[in-house]
Amino acid sequence: MSFPSSKKITRILGAELDKLVTLPSIWITLTGTFILNLLLAASFTSVGLQGTAGTQSIMSIGLASMRYLQAGFIILGILATCSEYTGGQIRTTLTTIPWRGVQLSTKHLALAIITIPAAFIIAASGVLYTFTMMRDTAVVIEIDTMIKTLLGATGYLTCTTLLSAAIGALFRRTTPALVVLLGYYFVVSPLTRDFPPSIREYLPDKAGYDMYMSPSSVTLNFLTPMQGAGISMLWTLILITVAIVLFRKRDA
């Protein structure tokens, strides 16, 4: 089977983008995640204003919701790939786009195009709320550091979404993929806190944490933001590659 031309790839990408932006569950998930983030930001900011959080920077408090916020992006990634298996839509897709590897690759690219601005806006909204409420009490952070941190948070949420989409493509069903990923991020991962840093910090979520969270007086980051980004991207690319290989070999 011949490889599609660049013009065809552009059309496939456009088709995948169109499918995602017209999927109601995508926007419901993003809207719900945005609202949840503001509620969590309000809660953490309230704790900070009461002084029980100690002396913290606006960024630390504004991004404290990231550990919970990632659940929305996990769901987003899974929905993006599993939705096509509902009602057998994937068969129609493969009839129109017979290049399986290209189809799944462009789906991940289309998902990244949607996720990057959404992740930045949602992460920044929490920080903006915290800044508005605590600008006179918390430790202020420099604007360039704020931008770098928000870019790191955006990168982590994007990698998490694409990784989740790859897992969704592997399982092809929403519920098993959700159980595995939410079980890892919220049950298994917290249990690894007693593991040696040389093992723990190379897990996808732990490495991602170092992409955006600055070291404090209590904790030190094992990885630099660039190292964390590299490891997170490596996990994501490996899982996407595995998903593409299996997608090409098995029936729809």
UniProtKB/TrEMBL annotation:
Span-the-membrane segments of this chain are 26-47, 68-88, 108-129, 150-171, 226-247
The superkingdom listed in its UniProt entry is Bacteria
Q: Which UniProt keywords apply?
A: Membrane, Transmembrane, Transmembrane helix
Q: What is this protein called?
A: ABC transporter permease
